[in-house]
Amino acid sequence: MQTSAPIRQIRLHAFEMACVGHIQQGMWRHPRDRATGYTRLDHWVALARTLERGLFDGLFLADVLGVYDVYGASPDAALRAGVQVPNLDPALLVPAMAHATRNLGFAITANAAATHPFVFARQMSTLDHLTGGRIGWNVVTGYLDSAARALGRDGQADHDSRYDAADQVMDALGRLWRESWQDGAVTADRDTGVYTDPARVHAVIGAGQGWRTDAIHLCEPSPQRGPVIYQAGASARGLRFAADHAECVFVNATTPAQTAGLVAALREAAGARRVQVFAGMTVVAGRTPAEAADRYADYERYADPEAAMVQSAGSMGVDFAVLAEDEAIRMVPTQAVVSNLAALTAGPAVTKRGWRERLRLGGRQVPVVGSPAQVADAMQDWMAQADLDGFVLARTVTPECFVDFVDLVVPELQRRGVYKTAYADGTLREKLFDRK
């Protein structure tokens, strides 16, 4: 039921990926789903316009390097079901969507270890310029051995050492974005012919695991100087990284109570530095409870729990294919997403069969199914109980899941006074943090 406790205005991001099977595996087979159009710009431009019509703060674009080849020690199952492969580079989708919108933000996922900081700094500054200050970066450190092999390594480095390496990258990027060019370095003086004052431009010297740099940043200062930093690590080391660097943190927990503990630990670690926390959520909305239930039942017919097992095997680093149906899943040493496996094994034993049955709509989130009022109630409860700033809404059948949310749920949230009726001015960072 709706809580009477004071709450924040709800902020929203859509959760997408440039592939056919993102989180809710199997939905691409639904007759109304348009995910197979992911290679066309008009697919993404239409989505961006829908989200801006619904006043979403941003589009959160996932990405993964490598393929899910842990399940059955082969990529075949992932390839057959389209589990996040094939996929496109999310950064290259952003300029077209930004050109078609004025306020929507874009948070792209990129591996901190995959590109030299000097090169990546220019890529993000370019996107910040082209979007007018609407770009964010979801910092990841990777979890697939297939990605490490693709990049010429034997396998993934130790989980915590990947965050140590990312700390070094963040230091260099921050200095390239914020210290290489002083304010006022660009004069663009037509009379003197001086575009940049060299005295106000400085080289950045840095080094990390496998790289070093001694360079002037190639881009003049962009509207935000650097992207809004997003992060989604929930392990102890991941939370420390988020507390040190992130401005927006995406948590993927199963209950408000579980999420509340995670959020409290994160806010305590961040101290005085303000961090916005978003929980993952899957919504199936209808005009009435009955319509929503019918829609959910329709979606469920196309869900592919086995494909979801393929994805979770890769993310946790555990080959579920070798387990008997009623064998319990146990915590084992892994260099993948440690927090996912820890969460699964923390409570009562979960068998392989039980885990498959949990993968509702082919994803591990328990969907919120209901009328606009029921969905709004659930969102307000989560906000109050878990001390959240908002949600990252996963796609089910696309684009109708986002169209339904915009047309049905957004007006209900606005009627309750918990969702904006217009965008604020400014960059993505200024919009998110109410800085004028």
Care to describe what's here?
The chain has 436 residues and is an alpha/beta fold. It has one domain (11-299, 365-432): Alpha-Beta Barrel (TIM Barrel). It contains 15 helices and 14 strands. The strands form four sheets. The protein has an eight-stranded parallel barrel, surrounded by four helices. A two-stranded antiparallel sheet has the order 5-6. Strands 7-8 form a two-stranded antiparallel sheet. The longest helix has 20 residues, at 159-178. The protein is globular and about 75 Å long. The two termini are 35 Å apart.
Set down the secondary structure blueprint:
Blueprint: E1 11-17, H1 41-53, E2 58-62, H2 76-81, H3 94-99, E3 105-111, H4 117-131, E4 135-140, H5 145-150, H6 159-178, E5 186-189, E6 194-196, E7 204-208, E8 211-215, E9 228-231, H7 236-245, E10 248-251, H8 256-270, E11 276-281, E12 283-285, H9 289-300, H10 305-316, H11 338-345, H12 352-358, E13 368-370, H13 372-386, E14 390-394, H14 400-415, H15 428-432
Parallel strand pairs: 1-2, 1-14, 2-3, 3-4, 4-9, 9-10, 10-11, 11-14, 12-13
Antiparallel strand pairs: 5-6, 7-8
